[in-house]
Specification:
Length: 422
């Protein structure tokens, strides 16, 4: 009986400590493995000393002090995570109850005794440990990368069970005596944990849905912006063709003049000039994509009778990808153009000023436009309750963060100013 009990005690101790280490987010090196193995051996030897010198009952009472507390310290030294080291130990303790309950189930089915239970626990120790290490430990470790709030929420149930088990089964006999409030406590905890999980899962789903919707909108913006660039490139190519075919146009006009068809010649000239004017891409800088975007928005501003000035100095070899540059410039200019259109509807004028240039390997963008009303800011970002708005700001922020850049939105002298540095 003593040999089986001692073997089972060693097995459950090793089971819990291995799980605790597996649940803890530790970058394992051979030195850390050596420290962990040595610490496990020392804790087990310390338990054995207490068992033979003082007695099994004292070992059970002092188990948190001689096993769990030293284990938390070792895991903290190895991981440098105080909270998660504690949660790892508590979670492993909770998993130990799975081993115990399965053994109790076998005892109940086969009408066994305490010896049968210890043997059953010994037999299932290794298979259950392997299953938990393979399928559960990676998910538990992943929680350690989340916020402290999420870690507290995850560790609450193991902590409550740990306190419940020691207070009602080891330090007192409240559970065995059948005190109703004690018997119903853990079902109550399970119910509350389930309800909290349901609320949390619903909120996570809502946030995920918003993020997926936003990602979809951003993808559409990128697709639309790239499509606009391609259309403008095609237009520019047509202009090049017109210029290439200028000799043929001149020959046709000359023929019309020689034959006295002056009106026909003038009409042809007007037609060619109109087509060239429509397809012309203004050169603001060396970067072709930037020129296409600036030209497109300049044309849109001109159609709305909104003055726009662009000062650009962007090279073709800029480190920003063409799609990101397109998203950044398009959203900034779209927001500025929208603000000016709203002012124009109220009979107010406004000018858009754009500065985009490179300096010392950095890209700088500043867009200034008038704003007709007070703009609300949250955490330095302009916010709006209008549906479909605010995506452009988030797109600009996403591009800036992707390049570890900085951005700012401000209002000065009734002018909205966007600054981006990448």
């Amino acid at each position: 009986m003593s040999a089986i009990y001692l073997s089972n005690s060693i097995a459950v101790g090793a089971f819990g400590m291995i799980l605790s280490a597996a649940f803890c987010d530790i970058f394992w090196t051979w030195r850390k493995r050596l420290v962990m193995i040595s610490s496990m051996a020392a804790i087990l030897l310390f338990q054995g000393f207490f068992y033979f010198r003082i007695g099994a009952d004292i070992v059970e009472y002092t188990y948190p002090l001689i096993t769990h507390f030293p284990l938390i310290i070792v895991l903290y030294i190895l991981s440098k995570k105080k909270l998660w080291s504690t949660i790892s130990v508590l979670t492993a303790y909770l998993c130990c109850q799975t081993r115990r309950w399965l053994a109790l189930l076998i005892v109940t089915i086969f009408s066994g005794d305490a010896v049968t239970q210890s043997i059953a626990e010994l037999i299932m120790t290794l298979p259950l440990l392997l299953i938990l290490l393979r399928f559960i430990a990676p998910s538990v470790r992943a929680v350690s990368q989340r916020t402290y709030t999420a870690q507290w929420q995850f560790g609450l149930v193991p902590a409550l069970y740990y306190a419940f088990d020691y207070l009602t089964s080891i330090y007192t006999n409240l559970l065995l005596d059948g005190v109703l409030v004690v018997v119903e406590f853990m079902p109550f905890v399970c119910c509350v944990a389930y309800l909290v999980f349901a609320v949390y899962y619903s909120e996570e789903g809502r946030i995920r849905g918003q993020l997926e919707e936003m990602q979809g909108i951003l993808n559409l913006q990128i697709t639309q912006a790239v499509r606009e660039i391609e259309v403008l490139r095609e237009s520019q190519q047509k202009t090049r063709i017109y210029r290439h075919d200028l000799r043929h146009h001149m020959q046709y006009i000359s023929s019309c003049i020689e034959n006295g068809r002056l009106e026909q010649a003038q009409g042809y000239i007007r037609e060619i000039c109109s087509e060239i004017e429509i397809e012309t891409v203004t050169v603001y800088c060396e970067n072709e994509a930037a020129n296409l975007i600036f030209s497109a928005f300049t044309a849109r501003a001109k159609d709305c009778d909104i003055p726009i000035t662009i000062h650009a100095g962007i090279s073709q070899s800029i480190s920003i990808s063409e799609s990101d540059l397109c998203v950044l410039l398009s959203n900034a200019l779209e927001n500025a153009l929208r603000a000016c259109r709203r002012r124009k509807e109220r009979g107010l004028s406004g000018t858009i000023e754009v500065y985009a240039y490179e300096k010392n390997g950095k890209f700088f963008l500043q867009v200034i436009n008038p704003c007709e009303e007070d703009i609300a800011f949250e955490h330095g970002l302009p916010v709006t309750n209008k549906p479909g708005h605010g995506i452009g700001v988030r797109s600009i922020c996403a591009v800036a963060e992707r390049y570890n850049g900085i951005y700012s939105f401000s209002v000065q002298d009734d002018k909205f100013i966007l600054r981006v540095s990448l």
